[in-house]
Amino acid sequence: MEKITCFFNFRSPYGYLGVKKAQERGIKLDYIPVCYLPKELIKFLSTASENEYKRSYLFEDCERLFKEIGIENVSETISKEANWPKVHASWLCAQENGFGDSFMIEMFDARWKEKLDIGNKEVIEEICIKIGFDKDLAISAMDDEGYDTRLKSFTKIMRENKVFGVPTFLYKNERYWGQDRIDMLYNKVLKDS
User: CATH assignment of 4-192, given 3.30.470.20, 3.40.30.10, 3.40.50.300, 3.40.50.720?
Assistant: First the structure.
């Protein structure tokens, strides 16, 4: 099967839903964390986030979507912010040590189901203990310039593939944006198999 790339961010409720649906469908993903944006997207996205109508719709939509999977009051979690590059650096460390998938699911669940602050090092340590990953490695990665540099380098890949949001799935140079495109992606992969 050809590689399917998934651009994600732990901050995004749609990222969580997209990754969850893809994994439930058995779609194998190669992940790229998005926590630094290409400069041409920064102005566009900051303007979009100031749109009160869009923001109110986001809360309304997420409440519906999360209720379908048994998660209530998701809007309180949407507003929790963290130092996203540091959070994603801990994931990147786990990923390169063979714990990326389990770390990712636990991080998403901690944020969206348990409504925890995943930027809190104690939360990350607990996740590491749960999955059997060295918590010291994950915590030290949060302040490691090498990981931060790698996270910044992903903006080039975003730019090359015209990725403007998460989750974006890239399959055979076709983009599928959004948690609601998983069935379409899945059917395309089946057709090509």
Answer: 3.40.30.10
For position 37, what pLDDT does the model report? Answer: 80
Pick out the chain residues at pLDDT < 50: none
Three-state secondary-structure class, residue 82:
coil
**Alpha-carbon gap, residue 142 to 181, rounded angstroms:** 32
Kindly report the pTM of this predicted structure: 0.91
* Spatial separation of the C-alpha atoms in residues 1 and 159, rounded to whole Å: 25
Boundaries of every domain in the chain: 4-192
- How far is it, in rounded angstroms, from Cα 77 to Cα 149? 28
Task: Find out whether 86 and 118 touch, Cβ atoms under 8 Å.
Answer: no
Contact in structure between 184 and 23 (CB atoms under 8 Å): no
pLDDT for res 24: 93
Task: Name the residue among 178, 186, 104, 92 with its Cα closest to residue 137.
Answer: 92
